[in-house]
Amino acid sequence: MPENYDEPLNPVEIERRIRTLANESGKAVRVVTDLLAKYREAERIYDREYAAAYLAYDGAQGSKRYAAEVATSEARRERDVAEVAWRYAERAAASLERQLSAYQTINRTVAQMYSAAGAMGEGG
């Protein structure tokens, strides 16, 4: 259900959103961890392939690095793609945490408003 920012929030809607965001944040931890593991593995593969290509190059010493870079371009691309996915997941998880924090703040404010309204209603 898309959020309508023009409508006031009630405690039930806020609690529902807090639960949803907390669940999504919990799942995000696993996603970020899995993507970090994939990135690290891709990085190890690239490093290993680069070292092998560097050592195997038979040309001039100054050309070894360039030959190794050319020979490992696909492994480097795969490492970079894995890094981008991991960093995106990190930012998405951080965004969920910020949203959760914002809703928790809103929840406290709304609870105080309902409490104050209830206290005012009791005196009349």
Describe this structure in words.
This protein is mostly helical and 124 residues long. The protein has 3 helices and no strands. The chain has helices spanning 11-56, 64-71, 73-122. The longest helix is centred in the C-terminal third of the chain and has 50 residues, at 73-122.
Describe the SSE topology.
Blueprint: H1 11-56, H2 64-71, H3 73-122
Helix pairs in contact: 1-2, 1-3
Give me the count of strands. Answer: 0
Beginning-to-end CA distance, first to last residue? 38 Å
**Proportion of β residues?**
under 5%
Helix coverage percent: over 70%
User: Which stretches are poorly predicted, pLDDT < 50 over at least 5 residues?
Assistant: none
Q: What do the pLDDT scores average to? A: 90
Q: Tell me about the biggest sheet? A: none
Tally of DSSP helical segments:
3
Given the C-alpha coordinates, what overall shape results? rod-shaped
Tell me the number of structural domains.
1
Radius of gyration: 26 Å
Structural class determined from secondary elements: mainly alpha
- Written as H for each helix and E for each strand, in order along the chain, the element string is HHH
